[in-house]
């Protein structure tokens, strides 16, 4: 687990807002994740797919892509739709999409959404 914002701010003699911004960047980069009700934790290199909320979302999306549920060129579900469907945070959905992009299954177009990658 990552120390609290207050502990990090005191340790590094910076404002809490500075710590919060730094932690948000680490979440966006996929280096740490938010665990609701617990705090933030480092994403381990050996982490097993399925152990986290983002992995569950990615697995379901991968299965739906493999089943041909999404037409070529049609947008995948929005972040908001997936947040509601899985009851997860926006960062969790973004992490799932980032994982699928890394696998070459999804293409994200800034401002347009996520789409199945050309096969």
Structural summary, described in words:
With 119 residues, the chain is an alpha+beta fold. The chain folds into 2 domains: 38 residues, no CATH class; 64 residues, Winged helix-like DNA-binding domain superfamily/Winged helix DNA-binding domain (Arc Repressor Mutant, subunit A). The strands form 2 sheets. The chain has a two-stranded antiparallel ribbon. Strands 3-4 form a two-stranded antiparallel sheet. α1 packs across α2, α3 crosses α5 and α4 crosses α5.
Cα end-to-end separation: 39 Å
The helix/strand order is HHEEHHHEE
State the fourth-level CATH superfamily of the largest domain: Winged helix-like DNA-binding domain superfamily/Winged helix DNA-binding domain
CATH architect. name of the largest domain: Orthogonal Bundle
Poorly predicted segments: none
The proportion of residues forming helix, as a percent range, comes to 40-55%
Strand order of the largest sheet: 1-2
Total beta-strand segments: 4
Output the structural class: alpha+beta
CATH level-1 class of the largest domain = Mainly Alpha
**Count of DSSP-assigned helices:** 5
Number of domains: 2
Shape: elongated
| Strand composition percent | 5-15%
Using only CA atoms, what is the Rg?
16 Å
Major sheet details: 2 strands, antiparallel
CATH topology of the largest domain: the name is Arc Repressor Mutant, subunit A
Overall pLDDT confidence: 87
